[in-house]
């Protein structure tokens, strides 16, 4: 199904006057503090986040999976769902595809549909963490496997992903490796790293000149003794050995508890080595929870580093890719993605409000209390009217979730696709 802009505007009407009151109140306050409100709104409007094709169906755990009904059955239906998200939130304008889950059977048809919905193709994702009928098994690893024939197969798969992405107009390849070992002695720690490096070099060599490689890291899971790329340092080291267009991808859930992720972001930007972001949230590990649902202050601090790193010229904002990477076990995925997009917009906006001049002066003076006051002044400000205004100006809904519910969109999707329809993915 497709949502027209007219329908959204019609549903916005009854909510506009109270929104305007709240916006005026906040705008007056921010203007008095020296902020350029129009420029803030423009920055929020411009900030768009990609949605991965695997986030639109119900995810599962190793214990089970509970369908939500009306899940997209095909790549085309996944694009339609992202079209709905875009129409409602105006905060996402691209999809990140996964191969082999999303191999397009009709490339020009898929491109046409995406263009019609205003959706572009973000980085492509390869998959060497599970078997799907290929000749050799990835049970004991892929790009870093001790067997050359398996490494070759994994390299060939990544090259195939690049070829599919080229046809669609993507400009990046995301590589996440499940490679590692579960037991001491199972694999050679040094050799597996070297094989991974050689495999990545072979893949990079086949990437078009205007593509980038986004190399993800993860400290554990599915392997629990060692993972070949456990942290940003190892990812960075491999990227440097591969080429200039290979950079580190930070997935918020891929850190041990209490890791200072904002420091990692600052360090990577310092070296112009940040490829992009995978947004989610977690309490314990890679929990795939809704972005900002557990640690909104951490998300704000991360955005403070991103905003200051870009404003100071450490790394260009435009060179960084943004994507939500979450899986949905309990919530309707479309509603969950709307909540995530809202929180990303809110924390980004709060980071834009930080008085960086004052903060810098506090840092030089050693005024620790003053520095914290600077951050809290921005973090405690309720910026939702600004985020809402940016959405309305872009043609989105005043309140996306209430429109989604009012129009009974999930019910309509179930009527069309069935209660048992199942989306490809995790
Ligand atoms: Mn990820």
Automatic annotation (TrEMBL):
SUPFAM superfamilies: Xylose isomerase-like. The keyword Cell cycle does not apply. One of its GO terms (molecular function) is metal ion binding. The keyword Manganese applies. Keywords: Isomerase, Manganese, Metal-binding. This is L-rhamnose isomerase. It comes from Algoriphagus machipongonensis.
């Amino acid at each position: 199904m497709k949502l027209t802009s007219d329908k959204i505007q019609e549903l916005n009407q009854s909510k506009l006057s109270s929104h305007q009151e709240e916006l005026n109140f906040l705008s007056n306050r921010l203007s008095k503090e020296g902020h350029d409100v129009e420029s803030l709104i423009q920055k929020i409007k411009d900030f768009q986040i990609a949605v991965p094709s695997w986030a639109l169906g119900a995810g599962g755990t190793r214990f089970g999976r509970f369908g939500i009904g009306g899940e997209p059955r095909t790549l085309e239906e996944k694009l339609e769902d992202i079209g709905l998200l875009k129409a409602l939130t105006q905060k996402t304008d691209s999809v990140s595809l996964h191969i082999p889950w999303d191999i397009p059977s009709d490339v020009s048809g898929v491109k046409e549909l995406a263009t019609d919905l205003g959706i572009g193709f973000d980085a492509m994702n390869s998959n060497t963490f599970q078997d799907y009928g290929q000749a050799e098994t990835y049970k004991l690893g892929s790009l870093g496997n001790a067997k050359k024939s398996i490494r070759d197969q994994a390299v060939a798969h990544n090259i195939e992903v690049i070829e599919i992405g080229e046809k669609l107009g993507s400009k990046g390849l995301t590589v996440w490796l499940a490679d590692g070992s579960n037991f001491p002695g199972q694999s050679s720690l040094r050799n597996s790293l070297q094989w991974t490096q050689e495999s990545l070099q072979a893949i990079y060599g086949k990437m078009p000149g205007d593509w980038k490689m986004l190399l993800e890291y993860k400290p554990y899971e599915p392997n629990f003794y060692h993972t070949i790329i456990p942290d940003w340092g190892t990812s960075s080291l491999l990227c440097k050995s591969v080429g200039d267009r290979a950079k580190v991808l930070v997935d918020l859930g891929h850190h041990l508890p209490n890791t200072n992720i904002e420091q990692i972001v600052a360090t990577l930007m310092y070296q112009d080595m940040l490829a992009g972001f995978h947004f989610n949230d977690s309490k314990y590990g890679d929990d795939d929870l809704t972005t900002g649902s557990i640690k909104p202050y951490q998300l704000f601090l991360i955005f403070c580093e991103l905003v200051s790193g870009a404003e100071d010229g450490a790394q260009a904002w435009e060179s960084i890719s943004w994507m939500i990477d979450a899986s949905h076990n309990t919530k309707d995925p479309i509603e969950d993605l709307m909540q995530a997009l809202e929180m990303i917009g809110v924390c980004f906006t709060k980071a834009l409000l930080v008085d960086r001049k004052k903060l810098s002066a506090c840092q030089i003076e050693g005024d620790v209390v003053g520095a914290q006051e600077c951050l809290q002044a921005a973090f405690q400000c309720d910026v939702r009217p600004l985020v809402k205004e940016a959405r309305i100006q872009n043609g989105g809904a005043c309140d996306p979730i209430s429109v989604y519910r009012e129009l009974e969109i999930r019910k309509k999707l179930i009527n069309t696709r069935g209660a048992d329809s199942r989306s490809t993915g995790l």
